[in-house]
């Protein structure tokens, strides 16, 4: 082994033992299901959010792959409520219905619903101790700075990641790399003087140059939402489209009914766009929709954050 790489591995190991987030629950288990669940939850979601509100309640509700696969999708979505990216929950449920045990092969893992290259590598490294690298967003940033890469392609980054991985200690190495990216090698104001990789980092003099930052413009989507009301029951429909599929929600219409009463606006920011909803009440003389629920029953359904805001707007309106 390259002496420099061996020295780097030693420094990473020492740093992780004293500075790493070794107390995270999915790092102190060898249960592949628990590790798989944590990796899926951590896609697009911060550790703090997963740890404080979702990981333990989900395992309490569905302690095994079998219990998850046997559950109704509505129950799984309700448990996932508020975590967002609901396709993750649907793919978890679908996978649990297909297999009884998590496979240890990267190729077989990637064949399962919702498991991409990085998640497959993470499960292989953390659940099965395979000598493979993990490359989520924080690790990508580290690799870009180590090699002064402004616009790297995935193929090159994976090649670098494989060349650097500590094959003797893949678990601690990969966890450490993610922690270094999350706590030291930050997008802004990185703590280079505290980083165990400082001596081999080519980009440490101008770390914020790497990688090239992409300017993002967040589009705004506007919708008219109608709450069809039959006495104290509100009409909801279960979504079948790709967006928020499987969740219950209020109907979006091109033009609200003439007799509909405007009650206000709610908005919600998603990763790729902001949604603004103008909300209308329509009092029906007889029920014409398929499903109606009281506000209490809606609280037991799996609904999105924006629909929850619409319910709260309605409740505020009737109180006034």
TrEMBL record:
InterPro entries: DNA_glycosylase (IPR011257), HhH-GPD_domain (IPR003265), HhH_base_excis_C (IPR023170), HhH_motif (IPR000445), MIG/MutY (IPR044298), NUDIX_hydrolase-like_dom_sf (IPR015797). One of its GO terms (molecular function) is oxidized purine DNA binding. Keywords: DNA damage, DNA repair, Glycosidase, Hydrolase, Iron, Iron-sulfur, Metal-binding. Its EC number is 3.2.2.31. Residues 41-183 form the HhH-GPD domain. It comes from the Bacteria. One of its GO terms (biological process) is base-excision repair. It catalyses: Hydrolyzes free adenine bases from 7,8-dihydro-8-oxoguanine:adenine mismatched double-stranded DNA, leaving an apurinic site. Pfam families: HHH (PF00633), HhH-GPD (PF00730). Its cofactor is [4Fe-4S] cluster. Adenine glycosylase active on G-A mispairs. MutY also corrects error-prone DNA synthesis past GO lesions which are due to the oxidatively damaged form of guanine: 7,8-dihydro-8-oxoguanine (8-oxo-dGTP). Belongs to the Nth/MutY family. This is Adenine DNA glycosylase. It comes from Sulfurovum lithotrophicum.
